[in-house]
Structure to design on (412 residues):
């Protein structure tokens, strides 16, 4: 099975500007930001991306109360993906279904909340909830999906910082090719806006975005960018081997073509453009492609001054010999940085380009930073293109983890 073709047959998501792929895509093409201001404990009001899905669509009130925000996001996205794929788990061998979810961090929200709660009672730990441990274990989001759907196959999370959304898809594809499962749910989720610690951490690094208008706070490549807008969100895909998808007449969004994961091994926070470029090149080679085959590049760029420049350097180095550059865009300008969900969400926003041959733009670029001015950037307005047969999706993370995933147009 190691040479099986792996295809995407369903997409379920919640983003700050949409709770379905159709709504998400419509807002990306329409220039609609999902960023607003929220109150952050101890810190006041800051721009953030808040999802507005209804957790009770797929959960009981008791389960929402006992579980976690990340778990609710995961369940919503998984259920929506199954519905989108037209898949019923009834009659399937649930031992042969797998759940692989990328996360940046998990458990900080619940721990912060519990410490705050017992501070109101002079730190008496008898007020500490007995739900704390199952809420904070790292496998919680995938575990909550398993409980909700009754899936008895492997269900776990993949900690890969902000490269995690891609990693959920990559790992799901690998497990299908290994024959470990016959059906997979893969993607990424994040609850990051509910922990003040991540806001405080980025602020102490001078990497937290601020703007009088929150919808303009996330501005990758703009000369005035000043940091990250933290967001929550999730995107989960149904993945299948091609022959099984064909047998049930499934709609196919695209095919996993290639991928690469590597590490910078140079710094805790600062990215290494040479290693990023190597990750992109190796993903293209793994797909059996050349740089000329890539039509659309979704950048990871987070709107930090240095990080955006370094990724642009990496992309420019990879594609410098092309006569015509690929179209290059960024989704965080609309939704902020959804951390563990970023890669999966950003890929979803670009998948419809296979059908409509339109590339959504990077918004909020009032003055392009000359150091980010690379050929192919799609700025402020959508661009119609002649061909989209291959999409390259970059997601990079702290401690130097890099991931590049390539999805190609499905051809029977």
């Amino acid at each position: 099975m190691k040479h099986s073709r792996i295809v995407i047959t369903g997409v379920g998501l919640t983003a700050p500007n949409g709770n379905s792929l159709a709504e998400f895509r419509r807002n990306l093409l329409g220039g609609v930001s999902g960023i607003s201001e929220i109150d952050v404990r101890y810190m006041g009001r800051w721009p953030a991306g808040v999802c507005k899905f209804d957790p009770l669509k797929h959960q009981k009130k008791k389960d929402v109360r006992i579980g976690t925000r990340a778990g609710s996001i995961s369940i919503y996205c998984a259920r929506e993906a199954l519905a989108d794929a037209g898949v019923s788990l009834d009659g399937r061998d649930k031992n042969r279904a797998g759940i692989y979810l990328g996360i940046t961090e998990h458990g900080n929200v619940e721990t912060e909340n519990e410490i705050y709660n017992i501070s109101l009672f002079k730190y008496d730990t008898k007020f500490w909830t007995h739900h704390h441990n199952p809420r904070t274990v790292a496998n919680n989001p995938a575990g909550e999906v398993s409980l909700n759907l009754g899936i008895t196959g492997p269900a776990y999370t993949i900690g890969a910082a902000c490269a995690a959304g891609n990693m959920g898809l990559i790992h799901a594809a690998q497990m299908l090719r290994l024959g470990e499962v016959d059906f997979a749910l893969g993607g990424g989720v994040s609850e990051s806006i509910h922990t003040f610690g991540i806001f405080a951490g980025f602020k102490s690094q001078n990497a937290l975005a601020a703007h009088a208008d929150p919808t303009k706070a996330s501005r990758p490549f703009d000369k005035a960018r000043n940091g990250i807008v933290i967001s929550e969100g999730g995107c989960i895909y149904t993945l299948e081997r091609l022959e099984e998808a064909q047998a049930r007449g499934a709609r196919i969004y695209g095919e996993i073509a290639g991928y690469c994961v590597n590490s910078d091994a140079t710094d805790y926070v600062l990215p290494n453009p040479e290693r990023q470029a190597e990750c992109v090149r190796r993903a293209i080679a793994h797909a059996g492609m050349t740089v000329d085959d890539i039509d659309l590049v979704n950048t990871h760029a987070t709107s930090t001054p240095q990080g955006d420049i370094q990724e642009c350097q990496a992309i420019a180095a990879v594609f410098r010999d092309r006569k015509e550059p690929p179209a290059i865009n960024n989704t965080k300008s609309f939704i902020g940085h959804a951390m563990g969900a970023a890669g999966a969400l950003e890929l979803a926003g670009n998948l419809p380009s296979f059908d409509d041959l339109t590339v959504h733009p990077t918004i909020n670029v009032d003055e392009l930073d000359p150091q980010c001015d690379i050929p192919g950037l799609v700025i402020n307005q959508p661009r119609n293109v002649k061909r989209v047969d291959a999409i390259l999706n970059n997601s990079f993370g702290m401690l130097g983890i890099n991931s590049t995933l390539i999805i190609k147009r499905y051809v029977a």
Remarks:
- The CA atoms of residues 131 and 270 lie 37 Å apart.
- The chain has two domains: 6-247, 257-408.
- The domain at 257-408 is CATH 3.40.47.10 (Peroxisomal Thiolase; Chain A, domain 1).
- Residues 69-85 form the longest helix (17 residues).
